[in-house]
């Protein structure tokens, strides 16, 4: 981001995986430069043969975050002070995710909060939202609505032609339409048992086999 960003946490690569990290970094640099790694500067190929060389190449590759070569041969990443444009370094963590130990960077800046997480060799960015005053009851309220709209985990709008849902009489089509609209709002905003589903996925799950 173009604001002061503060980073809390440390991500690290164990000493046993540092040489593998060098190979991944070389591949990532080739992809970033849109060339085959063999056409990168020849000194890069020499650098990835030793932990010190890999560390030096990482320092050249990072623009905002910092790396350090620890006494035990591991590589540690973090930031002691604020930084900017941390997103410019994201490709490094995505590329090296397979060799990182599980861990997180917690980031904050300009009232925003987010996290870089590496778990089981995969990188992901997680956004957070600060909830104030009267909004603090929003999530519990939504959870209560989900219990009503999805009895037994099935959408209340499911009629006799759907499997497992509550039957709503066709005479109450206006009520049915309203319930479906609420279901769609919950689904599209990431709540309830059908969170994240497309409209087609929703129909496929609720329709009779």
Overview of the structural elements:
By secondary structure, the chain is of the alpha+beta class. It has 2 domains: 6-128, no CATH class; 133-203, no CATH class. 36% of the residues lie in helices and 17% in strands. It contains 7 helices and 7 strands. It has helices at 18-33, 42-47, 51-61, 90-96, 138-149, 173-188, 199-206, and strands spanning 6-8, 11-13, 66-69, 75-78, 103-109, 112-119, 122-128. The protein has a 4-stranded antiparallel beta sheet, with no helix packed on it. The protein has a 3-stranded antiparallel beta sheet with strand order 2-4-3, with helices on one face. Strand 6 and strand 7 form a beta hairpin. Helix 1 packs parallel to helix 3 and helix 1 (18-33) crosses helix 4. The radius of gyration is 25 Å and the shape is elongated.
């Amino acid at each position: 981001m173009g604001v002061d960003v503060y980073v809390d946490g440390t991500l690290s690569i164990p000493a046993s995986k540092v040489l593998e990290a060098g190979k991944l970094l070389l591949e990532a640099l080739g992809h970033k430069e849109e060339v085959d790694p063999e056409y990168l500067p020849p000194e890069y190929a020499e650098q990835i043969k030793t932990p010190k060389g890999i560390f030096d190449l990482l320092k050249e590759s990072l623009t905002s975050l910092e790396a350090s070569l620890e006494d035990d041969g591991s590589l540690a990443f973090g930031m002691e002070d604020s930084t900017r444009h941390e997103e410019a370094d994201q490709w490094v963590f995505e590329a090296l995710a397979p060799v990182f130990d599980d861990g997180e960077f917690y980031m904050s800046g300009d009232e925003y909060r987010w996290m870089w997480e590496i778990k089981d060799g995969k990188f992901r960015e997680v956004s957070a939202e600060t909830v104030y005053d009267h909004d603090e009851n929003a999530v519990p309220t939504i959870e209560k609505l989900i219990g009503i709209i999805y009895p037994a985990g099935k959408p209340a709008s499911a009629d006799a032609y759907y499997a497992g849902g509550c039957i709503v009489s066709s005479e109450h089509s206006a009520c049915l339409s309203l319930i479906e609209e609420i279901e769609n709002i919950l689904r599209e905003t990431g709540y309830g048992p059908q969170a994240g589903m497309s409209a087609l996925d929703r129909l496929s799950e609720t329709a009779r086999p």
